[in-house]
Amino acid sequence: LAGRGELDVWDSVLASRQWSGRGQLRRGWVSEPGNLFAAWRLPVPSAPWQNMVSVLVGWALCLGLAELGAPVRLKWPNDILLHGRKAGGILIEERGDVVLAGIGLNLATCPDDAAMRRDRACEAGVLAGLAGGASIFGRWFRLVNFARVRYSRELSESTPLEFSRSVEKVLAYLGTPVRVGDNRSSVCGVFAGLSPDGGIILDAGAERLTLHSGSLRPQE
């Protein structure tokens, strides 16, 4: 749609069901009917913000969901948690001058604990009862309009450094021991905050590290 000029900046598309949903690291995303699946076109960010888009979208959605009654937290870089369980995810994709945020929110169902992969960072959860009995479209309409205002205001009135500090109030696991890694290696340390380029800052013993990729989970 965007390639044909039929999806302007700030427009979004909702699907009632996905057949090939995917998340971080190209993992599958379970897409049962009743949940929310959206593609939201964003403006191309200026250079200082390019690596912060996923966190910025997550922050704006967390604030919007809180307004709708869900006290969610953002798990770096792109997961939305409710009471420690993953209830949503964000995937940013760029193709030329098109920037899309793929957003999935569990409004009705989520995978059972036994169905989750063994290396999951956290269990799945549901944003049940969000905005009363409103339709999926109605919930998204309220959420996306709120998020657009916060997203636009942050880009125009703040800097990545200022934002890296203000986002801390919605960050999950901040100030606690965590592990960041992939299938090949991992690093442990205390989650100290975000860098202005979107990386996660870890206090790892005598050194402070900034990582820009990997899956975050509490350290066991």
Main beta sheet: 6 strands, antiparallel
Spatial arrangement of strands, main beta sheet? 1-2-6-5-4-3
How many alpha or pi helices? 3
- State the end-to-end distance: 44 Å
- Strands, count: 11
* Overall SS class: alpha+beta
Q: In percent, how much strand structure appears in the residues?
A: 25-35%
Which stretches are poorly predicted, pLDDT < 50 over at least 5 residues? none
Helix and strand succession? EEHEEEEHHEEEEE
Q: Give the radius of gyration.
A: 17 Å
Work out the helicity level: 10-25%
Indicate the mean pLDDT: 88
Overall geometry comes to globular
Describe the structure.
The structure is a single chain. 20% of the residues lie in helices and 30% in strands. The chain has 220 residues and is α+β, with helices and mostly antiparallel strands. The strands form two sheets. It has a six-stranded antiparallel sheet with strand order 1-2-6-5-4-3. Strands 10-9-8-7-11 form a five-stranded antiparallel sheet, with no helix packed on it. The longest helix has 22 residues, at 136-157. It starts with 11 loop residues before the first strand and ends with a strand. The mean pLDDT is 88.
